[in-house]
Amino acid sequence: MESQTYAIVDLETTGHSSQQGDRIIQIAIVLMKDWEILSTYTTFINPEQRIPYFIQDLTHISEKEVKNAPTFEEKAEEIYELLQDTVFVAHNTDFDLPFLQAEFKRAGLPNWVGKHLDTVELAKILFPTAYSFKLQDLALELGIRLANAHRADDDAAATAYLLKACWQRLLALPLLTLEQLHERSFQLKSNISRLLLDAIHIKRTQQSTTTTDHHFYYRRLALKQPPNDGEDIQEVIDYPVTFQEKKQLFEKAFQHFEVREDQFKMMDKVWEALINKEEIMTEASTGIGKTLAYLIPSIIYAKKYHCTMAISTYTSHLLDQLLQEELPKAESILQNKVSAVIVKGMDNYIDLDRFCDLLEVKDISYDENFTKLQLIVWLQDTETGDLSEVTLTGGGKYFVDKIRRMETTAENRRRKPTFDFYLQTLHACKKADLIITNHAMVLADLNRPDPVFKNVNGWILDEGHQFIQAATNRAEKVFSYSKWKHLFGQLGSSESSGIEHPFYLNLVSSHTMSTRQLTALDEQFKDLTSLFDKSILALLRGLPSEKTKKSHHKQSYLLSKLNLQATVFKEYSYRLNQWLSLANYMTNAYLRYPDELSTKQKVHLADWQYQMNELQVYLAEWDSIFLQQIENDAAWMELDLRNLPGSVHVYKRPAEVEDSVAGIFQSFRQTAGIIWASGTLTVPKNSRFIADQLGLEKTVPLHQFQAPSSYYSGASVYVVEDMPDIQNVSQTVYIESVAEAIVQTVLATNGRCFVLFTSQDMLRKTVDLIQETGTLDDYMLFAQGMSSGSRMRLLKMFQRFERSVLFGTNSFWEGVDVPGDALSAVIVVRLPFSSPEDPYFKARAARITQKGENSFYKLSLPEAILRFKQGFGRLIRSSEDKGVLIVLDRRIETKSYGKEFTNALPNVPVKKVTLDAMVLELGNWYNS
């Protein structure tokens, strides 16, 4: 077979659209054959226009460098000839190839014709667990040298080596896997099928026989060796009791180890609680090394007493950080391997039977086919079966929902599974030193009749304050009009264009239902969808008739204030229950004859069951929200008046969770140590604020640990004293002043700022104003809710650009780490009080008022101080960091409670200055 010549191309341009006049400023072409680089062509191109500053910042290509370079027209034919008889390769061909074609056309040349290959598409399939598919992120993960990202020559070379890495990955896959990939590759956007075919030819010379059994995964997985259950692990050392013993352990593991006395003190308190089977709270400031302070004693305890410790945290990000970063450090300190198992909810794991059945279905969308390709490769390597390992794109998330492990998939399985990842994980827990999980899983599990964690001998509840939020989220019920309508569309009917109705499958006639029964089911379903719309119209008729200003389309209403007709909602609940009973009866009739169903029919039937289970969950939420009135619950409706009824959402949350949280661990008290750990458990004048919300007894002690003052030597706080009083001016006036303060700060620090808001509306208006003035056009502005992407993606983009500003709301106040020079300033636009109009806050405040207490001092102020402490925590993430916290809300100095905010911070200087004086100081500090 003749070898292909690959032309790996990268362009740097003045912008994203050649149609809008953007031009190339650099082009590089790497020619590769037989997986070796033959030659590299690179040249700057004079775009004959200004290069935007952020492009210069991104590419480090200045206007001076391109000033005397040739124009594209001068180089067009040379470039065109280089690409002849090659496969065009780029990292995102959807950008590079159309842009180049447009430039060829502008230069009077015909379209380039040939095959193309996209390394983004290819890498997503072959490296499905990569955190990011950006070139520089992949290069870092695969060990590919990329000295200057966003320079065409370096990027093209890195893309060439990425292509080679993909080829090597293909050759490492089993032949059957390659054949399955090739079979499904013709739906892809680039010409990957030829590459797969080349790999298949090579593999076939090495292997004479193949199999087409899609359940090959079972046999492969069943042959895997089970995880190490603790054999060959060294005997652990005794707990290091003295200061000197601890110091020696850490110094052996880390060069230039800096002793933090309070870290050692926290270790002792955790160890004592475990030994004495006590419950304690530990508040450790940033800089303590909190994670190692509880990991070291936990591991020693588990090994010394041959038992299992459970560590729970709040988010998946923190969970992964614990396993990948902190646990290896602990192993290095103790010179011991640790048997650790991550446990998540059942629906995080893949159901292999269901996946193999779905492999048989061919007539599918691009997104579904692409996700199958990713999963086929992923299954060769995964040890856990945790679907969150796969970085999904596009519509892949919907397909993955179909193959999640659930109780129903296990119950309805008619063949014995060869392998089950979820059961493997539960088995591994029995012999693990550490079980690592999250708060949501703990809450769900310990409420089950037979909990997974029932034999745990000690608990570490990291980010313990977030257990309240986790419990609230678990108890929350949500009605979404659009989700109900989407589910109705998926269930469809015999006349719908949705999925094939399972009761019209062409089954063996002796077992099918009568036509009368099928028709009745269909007619009842149509009646149900009609009755649903009538119920929602009745809900909307209860809204107040007041006119709303054009700028306030989004509204919220307490359900208790609406004139709801309960009989309408009862009627719908009754009718839907009847229909579900009949549908389940008929479904079970088919399930009795599984051998008479084709694979396609089984797939449709499984989809139908999944959707009916979803409808059962929706019905339970309907009953809870509209039919069950529980004292102290908060129930409210949110909608957008421009989109009715499509925007209708109804929420119901418990105003208090302390009883349910406290009850979760009742069976462990006196039999196991329980350690609540967090950086924010207290506020000035109320050290029991979080403890009370967790329902902890007054006898549970609180231990506080503080980093040395030198840790915060690079931090200071500015209160801008000539800002307008937020309570005495209009929002428009205040936003104008906020925008000016942000602009001046950004210019003084050269970017690298977080701007924290409490309102998405104020964030949007402020960003819009700044963009209108054009004062920060030379900076990259990333705004939550305005810029595309998740919180983590915005954070990554912010760190990538030197001159950048990140505008965020609630989720950016905590749990975001930006160590080093990537962050210079955190700007607090207003003190982070909850909105008094927030329905959930109203319900909680009302409960406190009913007890005769002041809801401001008991709830509003403490919560705001906790968020303020967390906002400061974004700034200093290591002892080398330096930065400033800038407060624009003058209430911190004019109100009697203002001191409580600054008192909650570590001992850092607080300066009250005018905006001009602050800008001058920042400029001197930044340039020093």
TrEMBL record:
It is an enzyme of class 3 (hydrolase). Residues 249-529 form the Helicase ATP-binding domain. One of its GO terms (molecular function) is DNA binding. GO terms for biological process: DNA replication. The keyword Nuclease applies. Its EC number is 3.1.-.-. CDD domains: DEDDh. The keyword Nuclease applies. ATP binds at A284, S285, T286, G287, I288, G289, K290, T291. Keywords: ATP-binding, Exonuclease, Hydrolase, Nuclease, Nucleotide-binding. Residues 741-916 form the Helicase C-terminal domain. 3'-5' exonuclease. HAMAP family: DinG_exonucl (MF_02206). Belongs to the helicase family. DinG subfamily. Type 2 sub-subfamily. This is 3'-5' exonuclease DinG. It comes from Rummeliibacillus stabekisii.
